[in-house]
Design brief:
The protein is mainly alpha-helical and 351 residues long. 60% of the residues lie in helices and 11% in strands. The chain contains 17 helices and seven strands. The protein has a three-stranded mixed β-sheet. Strands 4-5 form a two-stranded antiparallel sheet. A two-stranded antiparallel sheet has the order 6-7.
Length: 351
């Protein structure tokens, strides 16, 4: 039986028609690939191999600054001899996503980027554990610090390569931690604040006039982050740093020059000091709330015991012992929460 004519040959029997040279010098390796596979997988290669570009004319693509071993792993994601596209995307885990997101982004492989985005967003959710309550534990152990650092790194990756789902998840976690700064301030050291600052810098400024009913007017300065993570910038600026007369970090930053705000060394140091002030204020306010709750609980206990005095027989001394027991339990809880009160409550009048 005679062989197949050229027009009858199977597509799979057609030899590779483009050479991809990766690396430089002695480490350079050549890979024989199919332009149709590259073009269907990547808009980048589709444009390169469809237009009147030298790569299309010569059938040779060169990446002198890339690693041949990394290219081999990258090509395995789209090589039909290795896996189907569905199987390949299903094989993407957190490690491969972090490694190859820059490649998928550079070569405009949107379906792979979306898969990586979902995988990394899932990683953020897994770090969060049981939700907001878990966030409090991040600041009290080394493992928690490592988890938080991973979230910061994932946010940086998401901002760089436009991973919107991962970005939203990571920003949600970090904003939640800033909202509970009295418990989590140690997570926000200078280096981490520098990392977060780099995501919303540079900062621009715009002034506008506010007119009041009494005829007064005021020029208000608006701080406008030009970076990718505007939400993180606003979360910092909206932190309270004085409770007597409400003052926010925004009010302090508004008095600074743009040169200072956009100084990547100076401003994170200032922001770190503001965060510590905000943590102190939040701790004080939390203390006051707990003290008010304690007084409300004691007042309710006194009311109940007074009702018992009217409805059931017993001596005042007996009921006072009961009240002292209740007050003692409240004192124990105050010690657990850091609230200590030296005053001793009693139903009996002072001697």
């Amino acid at each position: 039986m005679s062989g197949l004519s050229p027009s009858q040959k199977k597509i799979r029997s057609v030899p590779p028609d483009v050479i991809v040279a990766v690396g430089s010098g002695e480490s350079m390796q050549e890979f024989h690939c199919y332009r149709v596979i590259l073009s269907f997988a990547s808009d980048y290669f589709d444009s390169m191999l469809s237009a009147s570009m030298i790569e299309n004319e010569t059938g040779r693509i060169e990446f002198p600054n890339k690693d041949p071993l990394m290219w081999k792993r990258f090509y395995s994601f789209i090589d039909p001899d290795k896996l189907s596209v569905a199987e390949t995307q299903a094989s993407i885990n957190v490690t491969t996503a972090i490694t190859f997101v820059p490649w998928f982004h550079e070569f405009q492989m949107m379906s792979f980027l979306k898969k990586c985005d979902m995988v990394l967003a899932g990683r953020v959710e897994k770090i969060m554990g049981d939700g907001v309550e878990f966030l409090y534990t991040l600041s009290v152990n080394d493992c928690g610090n490592g988890d938080f650092q991973e979230i910061v790194e994932l946010l940086k990756l998401a901002c760089t390569y436009d991973l919107d789902i991962t970005k939203d998840k990571a920003e949600e976690v970090i904003c939640s931690l800033l909202e509970t700064i009295q418990k989590t301030s140690d997570l926000f050291d200078v280096e981490r604040i520098k990392s977060l600052y780099s995501l919303f810098a540079p900062v621009e400024s715009e002034g506008y006039t506010v007119y009041y009913e009494d005829g007064q007017e005021e020029i208000v300065r608006e701080i406008i982050p030009a970076g990718k993570s505007k939400i993180i910038c606003n979360a910092f600026l909206n932190m309270l740093v004085s409770s007597d007369k409400p003052v926010f970090i925004y009010d302090l930053v508004a008095d600074l020059s743009l040169e200072t705000i956009n100084n990547a060394e100076v401003f994170p140091l200032l922001l770190h000091s503001y965060v510590l002030r905000a943590a102190s204020v939040a701790t004080t306010l939390n203390y006051k709330r707990k003290l008010a709750d304690r007084d409300e609980s004691l007042g309710a206990a006194k009311s109940i015991i007074n009702d018992l005095l009217l409805k059931t027989p017993g001596t005042l001394e007996q009921y006072n012992e009961l009240f002292q027991s209740i007050e003692g339990q409240c004192t124990h809880r105050r010690h657990e929460t850091g609230i200590v009160c030296s005053k001793k409550a009693s139903l009996l009048p002072p001697e």
